[in-house]
Specification:
The chain has about 425 residues and is an alpha+beta fold. It is about 45% helix and about 25% strand. The protein has 14 helices and 14 strands. The strands form two sheets. Strands 7, 8, 9, 10, 11, 12, 13 and 14 form an eight-stranded mixed beta sheet that branches. Strands 3-2-1-6-5-4 form a six-stranded antiparallel beta sheet, with helices on both faces.
């Protein structure tokens, strides 16, 4: 690879990184251009840890021949179990332990080595293994993202030449910078979704970050909280409280997301969510679909927790429809992207009324009246109530008891809920 090839590849990496090219496409384009310039790569793998609530990092791979392997993947924690054992046997762990930035292995003479993947790579005909670890400085570290790991293989007889190694030594750091940049964008999007909610995150990332920037929207509002959570918390050990809250939050959030809703806030054991769309009647049906899936999730969760000898509970859900302000509210340096307005207070009060009249679901008249003709009969009035802090009494509705009492009615209700699940 001569200097003009290196410059062309450098420019390509920079240009594609600036356009936002995906990491696996960056790696593929890099490898293909290396091969065209005379570096006979046969396989490449890159890894980078990230900041994510579920997995530890992401990897990207390229092969010179078709395989069944995915070109990108996530990996879990390497701190325990089989993953920890595999990590300790890896060349990268060895390099970190020894302080090496570069490590080379002749795969035609590696029988005496005990690294985890080396012998399999040799059996597949690869001749030479070259690994790099590029460490980030303290200011460049984000979460566990403190290194870029990569290895490069060739089937060339005699392995990589010194000139090819020198070229990779110069080029891979730029690829590392491009992939790190893409991963930082992914981290921002992940943190936005996890802490703000899906739609709110997209709004913020599109630039709506100024205080007071809101819009009036009509939305179906959901508020749920756990039944008897205070008493349960007082009766169990402190280290059981968070798993309890996580289990039931997962049950509700999964149901809401599966039905097309957006979770805006977790308030203790409470969940505030919205369902929106051009067809607000269908948004109402989506909220009922989420409530139904929530009950199924709770049933499965309670069965598991009971089998483990852990406390179980249920939840109250309030549903309402109204106009709200949706956007940034707070101080100049601490904002919350959420909904505010009288309707938000009302849905919270409606959920609170579930305890008083012993119903797991209560919906407002505004919610019920806007359902389509097929769905309206599935809700029945529980009476007229004055809500605390709300200046007017109103009718509240719950699911027709026949849904629980009759299998045929239950099947019809489920068919109604799923009739237009394209909204989800």
């Amino acid at each position: 690879m001569d200097s003009s090839d290196r410059l062309a590849l450098n420019n390509w990496i920079i240009g594609q990184s600036l356009t936002g090219m995906a990491e696996n496409d960056l790696l593929r384009g890099f490898c293909e251009r290396c091969c065209e310039a005379g570096i006979e790569l046969s396989r490449a793998m890159t890894f980078i840890d990230t900041l994510h609530p579920i997995f530890e990092g992401r990897g990207f791979r390229w092969n010179d021949t078709p395989t069944n392997e995915r070109d990108s993947f996530e990996y879990g924690s390497s701190n325990e179990g089989e993953a920890a054992q595999n990590w300790r046997r890896s060349t990268f762990h060895y390099m970190l332990e020894k302080g090496h930035d570069e490590f080379s292995i002749d795969l035609t003479n590696c029988a005496h080595l005990d690294f985890g993947m080396i012998h399999d790579l040799a059996q597949k005909g690869h001749q030479h293994f070259l690994a790099f670890v590029h460490r980030f400085g303290e200011a460049g570290t984000l979460g566990q993202m403190d290194c870029f790991y990569s290895y490069w293989l060739t089937r060339r007889d005699g392995g990589f030449t010194e000139m090819q190694i020198a070229a990779l030594r110069d080029l891979v750091p730029l690829l590392a910078l491009a992939i790190k940049s893409a991963q930082q964008v992914d981290i921002v999007r992940t943190l936005g979704r996890v802490y703000l909610g899906r739609d709110a995150s997209e709004q913020v990332l599109r630039g709506r970050i100024s205080r007071g920037v809101t819009e009036r929207i009509n939305a179906v509002l959901w508020f749920s909280d756990l039944r008897g959570s205070t008493a349960i918390s007082e009766s169990i050990s402190p280290d059981e409280i968070i798993p309890l809250l996580n289990d039931y939050a997962e049950a509700s959030i999964t149901a809401i997301h599966d039905a097309g809703g957006d979770v805006l806030k977790l308030i203790g054991d409470g969940v505030l969510a919205i369902f929106t769309g051009s067809d607000i009647a269908e948004a109402r049906r989506a909220a009922l679909r989420a409530e139904h899936r929530f009950r199924l999730n709770i049933s499965a969760l309670n069965a598991r927790r009971a089998q483990e000898g852990r406390p179980v509970t249920s939840a109250y859900v309030g549903l309402h429809v109204g106009e709200v302000f949706y956007g940034n509210i707070g101080s100049e340096d601490r904002l919350d992207f959420t909904v505010v307005g009288p309707a938000v207070n009302e849905v919270s009060r409606i959920a609170s009324m579930c305890r008083s009249i012993d119903r797991e679901l209560l919906a407002s008249a505004e919610f019920c009246d806007g359902l389509d003709e097929e769905g309206r009969p599935y809700l029945v009035s529980t009476g007229r109530y004055a809500l605390r802090g709300i200046g007017r009494a109103q009718d509240l509705y719950t699911l027709d008891p026949e849904i629980a009492a009759s299998e045929a009615v239950a099947r019809r209700y489920e068919a109604y809920l799923e009739a237009d699940a394209a909204y989800a």
